[in-house]
Amino acid sequence: MNIQALLSEKVSQAMIAAGAPADCEPQVRQSAKVQFGDYQANGMMAVAKKLGMAPRQLAEQVLTHLDLSGIASKVEIAGPGFINIFLEPAFLAEQVQQALTSDRLGVSQPTRQTIVVDYSAPNVAKEMHVGHLRSTIIGDAAVRTLEFLGHHVIRANHVGDWGTQFGMLIAWLEKQQQENAGDMALADLEGFYRDAKKHYDEDEAFAERARNYVVKLQSGDTYFREMWRKLVDITMTQNQITYDRLNVTLTRDDVMGESLYNPMLPGIVADLKAKGLAVESEGAT
User: Among 70, 96, 105, 82, which residue's Cα sits nearest to residue 31?
Assistant: First the structure.
């Protein structure tokens, strides 16, 4: 049971019985200080003004209609017209007992929604660092909570599995005669990535070859697509081992990489061109 919702309903009914409009807001909130009780109804101020009454006068009339027997041990008016509600200990004990014996621990079920939670998001060809692990654990806790509440949750593990780094890696693996990428561990791959990035920054010929390889990859070249899949698989396989060790609910089916959008890009670019929203500049659209 939601105690605040119960009190709001009771106070609202009493306010209407005292002459308040049917859409009045009781404004029941948890009290900030213990001397003001467990809950406080502050709605008399706004409603009294509409009725042309003093808030305290309205509060007094509301109390004559407010029945909180078995719920509150004391109800009193404070200040200009606040209603302080002190809950009955036996009532609280009963609510706790009901919560303890309930499968939902007393948590009410909200209106079901579809919610996307984007979390973890590791880098490809690199091991996860503490920032990724933090996102992974917090994200999975949020997902589990939302599912417990009854929502339909879509897990989105958005990974950077597309772009220049793959041209660099493939070019460097070729240079090192390490084309059988499937036999490498993620730690090996991360070392290759560091070396590839260093040469990309320092060797223009290597950088040009890497950029050409990216073009071939994006064009669907069979060899480069196969190499790319191997590199991604090494990363995601190791990441899944980590997820399983942490009892995280992410799976390979939740991976939404940048490559997912690649087939959509030609149509998007064509649409932008047709609408005059895209132009060519320095050889790029």
Answer: 82
